[in-house]
Amino acid sequence: MNKSFKFTILRIWGNKLIAFSILTYLFLTCGIKVSAQTAYAVLDDTKTVLTFYFNNNKDKFKNSFDIPTVNSSNTDISPEWNSKVTDTETTQKKYQDINTVVFDQSFANFKPTTCYDWFDGMEKLTTIKDIKNLNTEA
Predict the structure, then answer these.
(1) Which whole-number Å values give the CA distances from 107 to 1, 15, 17, 44, in the listed order?
(2) What is the CA radius of gyration of the chain?
(3) pLDDT tens, 97-129?
(4) What is the pTM (predicted TM-score) of this model?
(5) C-alpha span between 37 and 16 (Å, rounded)
(6) What contacts 94, CB < 8 A, 6 or more positions away?
(7) Is residue 24 domain-shared with residue 57, that is, in the same domain?
């Protein structure tokens, strides 16, 4: 092998090694955390405002609920925030005092497969904020 060929090989591998070292350093020191985004709804402490999100922050809220999807038998599932509570006299909605629904900007990136029963029984619902963030495209 001639000297120029060896020099070219060393230069190519040297550049790759430097780039690999820089990337490794960045990944190890920056603590990059990659996790899947989750669609969920959060009920505030007053149990009157339900906010929809699509991000990685679900664990930060105590009253958070997964967004239901169509199940394997192709039937809709009622959301947890709208589940029924049965007592001896009547069946009522668990969170019937919700008067405001908010669609956070992050929710615009989520495409729900169903909105079945999301607002059923919300007799006090008077305000829906940022409905433009509810993505209904197929």
Answers:
(1) 61, 42, 41, 17
(2) 25
(3) 899 999 999 999 999 988 888 988 788 999 999
(4) 0.68
(5) 33
(6) 81, 82, 83, 84, 85
(7) no
What's the length of the chain?
138
Report strand pairing: 49-55 vs 100-103.
parallel
Residue 90, Cβ neighbours under 10 Å: how many? 7
Range of the domain at 94: 38-133
**Which value, to the nearest 10 degrees, does the dihedral of the CA atoms of residues 84, 87, 88, 90 take?**
-50
Q: Are 52 and 39 in contact (CB under 8 A)?
A: yes
Together in a domain, 86 and 55: yes
CA distance 84 to 44: 19
Name every residue whose Cβ is closer than 8 Å to that of residue 111 and which is 6 or more positions away in sequence.
135, 137
End-to-end CA separation in angstroms for the chain: 61
Rounded distance, CA 101 to CA 134, Å?
11
Same domain, 19 and 55: no
